[in-house]
Amino acid sequence: MIFVMLMAVLAGLAWMIQIMSMMKFVLNYGVKISSFFGLTALMIPFIISIIIPFVTFIAIIFVYNKLISDNEVTVMASAGLSPRQIARPALAFATIMMLVHLLMNVFVVPSTQARFYDMQWNLRYGLAHLKLQEAAFTELSPGLVVYVDKVSGHDLSQVMLSDMRNKQSEMVIFAERGKLIATSRGLSIVMSNGSIQGRGNMMVSGTFDTFDMDLNVADKGGINSYRVRSVSTKQLVRDIFDSPTAKRHRNALTELATRFLEPLMNIILAALCLAILLRSSLLRRRASFAPASAVGAMAVVMAVFMSAMNMMTSLTDFGVLTIGVFAMLGLVMFALCRK
């Protein structure tokens, strides 16, 4: 119950911070509230995957410190139970959380993150957010203004488009009809039966039957930009062996370690916490600083693990980190279970 309560509070707090940071979608793009909350809700699995080892650690330290302060651990030890037996429920719980964390990292988070980035891109640059008003000038981006006489869905009539974004190639386009379409680069408008006037190094004027113009209001990366958290695990393994750039290779290695090694931190932190608390509780003079020591040890272990992940540059480094994580797991389990 402590775990559930902490997870709800911390995940909810992180979600609220995410909502506040993304309010620009409602203010700048006119996104519906339902679509906005649907977008931010896709971040919840990612948030949970980050905080789950810490919440597991906090829940265990809270419960076992309560048992120690109520002398229940002393009674159990006097009845013949070893530290390993007393720690068994917490280790079983940490193992379950490790499996849940692993499943989330391998399957749930990549899927929801891919949907999050796709939905974010569509809300920002797709047709979903664009609302052209009839008989009014609409500024799509600085220097790009559109006037439409009538709007019927994505079909436009009597279109005037002024593109002053590039001072070297300014243009004004008039057309009888137009149609908005979404491409992988962003919004495009297909106009028919019109004229164009351009000004740059020289004046240009002419007419056209059909004219397709990319509005270029999307970001440079576009929908196809590489975001490692949204890549499927299968594709991630491929990227490690066949990466076009060294940076992408390093990102793929770091993400692979995050997905497969980070879940083990649930057990490592739990065993570390239990070893410090239970060993100190059996001393003649009980160490009142044991919870603080456990928190400090957790901070050191996580700092070392995160630093090692970010320093990886090759599969050899990944292998060394894997061996180090399992060695750390064996060390804390030995410290917990030894008599």
What order do the strands of the largest sheet run in, or round the barrel if closed?
Answer: 1-2-3-4-5-6
Rg over CA atoms, rounded to whole Å, is 29 Å
- Main sheet properties: 6 strands, antiparallel
Give me the count of strands. Answer: 6
Low-confidence stretches: 220-224
Span between termini = 31 Å
User: What proportion strand?
Assistant: 15-25%
Rough outline = elongated
Mean pLDDT: 87
Give the SSE string.
HHHHHHEEEEEEHHHHH
Structural class: alpha+beta
How would you summarize what this structure contains?
The chain has 11 helices and 6 strands. The chain has helices at residues 2-21, 24-29, 33-41, 44-69, 72-78, 83-125, 233-241, 246-260, 265-281, 290-310, 315-337; strands at 136-141, 144-152, 155-163, 170-183, 186-199, 203-214.
Give the arrangement of secondary structure elements.
Blueprint (H helix, E strand, L loop, with lengths): L1 H20 L2 H6 L3 H9 L2 H26 L2 H7 L4 H43 L10 E6 L2 E9 L2 E9 L6 E14 L2 E14 L3 E12 L18 H9 L4 H15 L4 H17 L8 H21 L4 H23 L2
Antiparallel strand pairs: 1-2, 2-3, 3-4, 4-5, 5-6
Helix pairs in contact: 1-4, 4-6, 4-9, 6-9, 7-8, 9-10, 9-11
